[in-house]
Design a protein that fits this description.
Layout lengths: L2 H8 L4 H15 L2 H7 L4 H23 L7 H27 L2 H8 L2 H13 L5 H19 L5 H24 L5 H28 L8 H25 L5 H7 L3 H13 L7 H28 L6
Helix pairs in contact: 1-11, 2-11, 3-5, 3-11, 4-5, 4-10, 4-11, 5-9, 5-10, 6-9, 6-13, 7-8, 7-9, 7-12, 8-14, 10-11
Length: 312
């Protein structure tokens, strides 16, 4: 079965199936921190090889399937730009995973809906609503609660939150073009942008930050990077781009809040007690999740209240 058929089979136009598809890939993506931890390379090296592999493979696939890759120049530049932002998001994500653990990384990424609620009005030229402001402030209190304890992974948590900011921008910008072009074409240009950005930064990184040559990947590293490139950078990424035709950016980022639950359970089987945090961490994580889930839940309740017997 070809890559195009796999994605078409997984991502459908039906809303319920689209949500199931989204949650399936969130479950799968919650294992990405675990994979990154097992790769011996640095964050920039991992993202460089991952984006290069994904870009080359998707390019040949598009050529074989004869899918046209021509897009408007302005849209191409926007897609390449979002790809560059994706590379920043991925590098920060890997740094967070390697300087903390899976649970901390995914809780930090769970702040993505907060960033979406603040950033989206800028692009749509609308002011944030009171509910969105309260959601953001409540989530920030949860973050403060985590940092107020003797938290050993402050650097990883902060890096994950910063990665969530860039993830929010990428989600919003990608959703604007998801209905206009083939999802694989969108992924192609974004992987191109991600690869170019990482390739441009790599020499500076090796000389001034790592202060050493590019590390030679082990056979295990190569296998895991190929998995990241094919399963997550191409199939999962393209599938999520496709479901954006039916699901809003906020709903997508909201669904990502289940990633800490999925990832925490899976990581526990890999790393054991090192994944267990203190009560402050779980209390803060609960506040973040509750703050983000409260707004759509309230909207749903108010909608039910509007359905009176006279209207039925």
């Amino acid at each position: 079965m070809s890559l195009d058929k796999i994605i078409n089979k997984l991502a459908t136009t039906d809303n319920k199936r689209a949500y199931l598809e989204l949650h399936f890939w969130i479950l799968c993506s919650s294992t990405i921190p675990i994979i990154n931890i097992y790769i011996s390379l640095s964050s920039v090296e991992i993202v460089f090889l991952r984006t290069m592999t994904a870009f080359v493979m998707i390019f040949f696939f598009l050529m074989i399937k004869k899918i046209p890759i021509k897009v408007k120049t302005s849209h191409m530049l926007l897609l390449v730009f979002t790809g560059m932002l994706t590379s920043i998001y991925w590098v920060l994500f890997v740094i967070a995973a390697k300087t903390s653990n899976t649970s901390v990384t995914l809780v930090g990424m769970a702040t993505t809906p907060v960033w979406v609620s603040f950033v989206y009005p800028i692009f749509s030229k609308k002011r944030p609503t009171f509910n969105e402001m309260m959601t953001g402030l409540s989530a920030l209190f949860g973050v403060y609660m985590i940092f107020s304890s003797s938290f050993a992974y402050s650097e990883g948590m902060f890096t994950a939150i910063l990665a969530a900011f860039f993830a929010a921008i990428v989600t919003i910008l990608t959703s604007k073009l998801s209905r206009q072009y083939h999802y694989l074409v969108i992924t192609f240009y974004q992987m191109l942008g991600a690869f170019l950005a990482t390739a441009a930064v790599l020499p500076y990184y090796l000389k001034f930050i790592k202060q050493g040559p590019f590390s030679m990947p082990t056979p295990e590293d190569i296998l895991l990077i190929i998995v990241l490139a094919i399963v997550f950078s191409i199939i999962a990424y393209s599938s999520i781009v496709k479901v954006m035709k039916k699901i809003t950016p906020f709903s997508i980022s909201l669904a990502n809040n289940l990633a800490p639950i999925y990832g925490g359970v899976i990581a526990y089987f890999f790393f054991g007690e090192s994944e267990i945090m203190d009560l402050y961490f779980y209390g803060g994580a609960f506040i973040i999740a509750f703050a983000i889930l409260a707004m759509p839940l309230a909207r749903w309740i108010f909608k039910l209240q509007k359905i009176t017997p006279e209207k039925i």
